[in-house]
Design brief:
Blueprint: H1 21-33, H2 39-46, H3 50-60, E1 64-67, E2 69-71, H4 77-95, H5 99-105, E3 106-115, E4 126-129, E5 137-139, E6 147-154, E7 160-164, H6 173-188, E8 201-203, H7 208-211, H8 213-221, E9 225-227, H9 238-251, H10 259-271, H11 275-294
Parallel strand pairs: 2-5, 3-8, 8-9
Antiparallel strand pairs: 1-4, 3-6, 6-7
């Protein structure tokens, strides 16, 4: 054409790839206003290459992108004391039993909503934070899509009991007692490692069906040993700490139209988990209990 020089002409649409003071300042200003922005969004907004934006955030500003801490409630000082007590009791329980014993008799129970149309995960709540910055907290919200309430109880050596509500059903003390009774009958009749309810260390939270008089009477009558879980402390329960996250991640790839589908896929996913994983998660819970005590019950 008309070009007589081999020198490159400036391209105004090409992203800048320099970590200049001005670019660092621009990135800082934009991420300070909206820490949820992605590298791609910042790059497009400032006409700076994505790699340059990433290097500025990590190498120059020392930012890191983390997921917000999801907390169930704004806890009081009394709640913190209760969390410390629960963590201390759990540590004592772990220290007074061998790992083999814990895997056999430490039964963890909880409920969770399983959506038939699973939405986005907590990845959407990742934010950029500066050095020494604290993670933002997100109070969990109730979801109202097509769903079922999944009840689950398990031990570290692979025993499992699950149930799921049908449309219009709810979990009250009567249905929860039925779940415990069904679990006891199921595990008592196992050919391998049969276990009665009065042998178990049964851990559940302070949900109303769990603390109702009818439930407490059944537990006392069957001489069950309860493991304390303080209010607003899902991080002390292996279901909330790990299993539900693992389960929902796998269920995202399953076709779910009914509660029976949820039960089928839940059992399949659970039995694919290596037993070594249960031992590892119990070990992590031990360490977590120590951290709770060291930070005086705060999250």
């Amino acid at each position: 054409g008309n070009r007589n020089s081999v020198q490159h002409l400036p391209n105004p649409g090409r992203p800048i790839s320099q970590r200049t003071t001005a670019n660092i300042s621009k990135v800082f200003d934009i991420i300070d206003k909206d820490p949820k922005l992605s590298v791609a969004c910042i790059s497009e907004s400032l006409s700076i290459s994505k790699e340059t934006v990433r290097r500025i955030l990590v190498d120059e500003l020392f930012y890191r992108k983390v997921c917000s801490v999801w907390i169930p409630h704004k806890i009081s000082e009394q709640n913190k004391i209760q969390r410390c007590n629960s963590a201390t009791n759990l540590l004592h329980l772990f220290q007074s039993h061998t790992m083999n014993e814990l895997q056999r008799i430490f039964a963890v129970q909880d409920e969770t909503w399983i959506l038939f149309e699973l939405g986005n995960s907590k990845e959407e709540n990742k934010v950029w934070i500066p050095p020494q910055g604290k993670r933002p907290r997100v109070v969990c919200q109730q979801l109202t899509f097509r769903k079922t309430m999944l009840s689950i109880a398990f031990t570290g050596n692979g025993k499992l009991s699950v149930s799921a509500t049908e449309r219009g059903d709810t979990i009250d003390s009567k249905s929860y007692v039925h779940f415990i009774h069904t679990t006891g009958e199921l595990w008592r009749k196992l050919r391998s490692d049969s276990t009665c309810l009065n042998e178990l260390l049964w851990m559940h939270d302070n949900a109303r069906p769990h603390t109702a008089a009818h439930t407490q009477e059944f537990i006392q009558r069957r001489k069950m040993h309860l493991v304390q879980q303080s209010p607003y402390s899902p991080d002390l329960n292996l279901c909330d700490r790990w299993l539900f996250k693992e389960l929902k991640s796998k269920l995202k790839h399953c076709h779910i139209e009914s509660a029976s589908d949820v039960l089928h896929h839940t059992k399949r996913v659970f039995h694919q988990i290596p037993l070594e994983r249960f031992e590892s998660e119990i070990g992590k819970l031990k360490d977590h209990c120590s951290r709770i005590i060291s930070c005086h019950g705060d999250y």
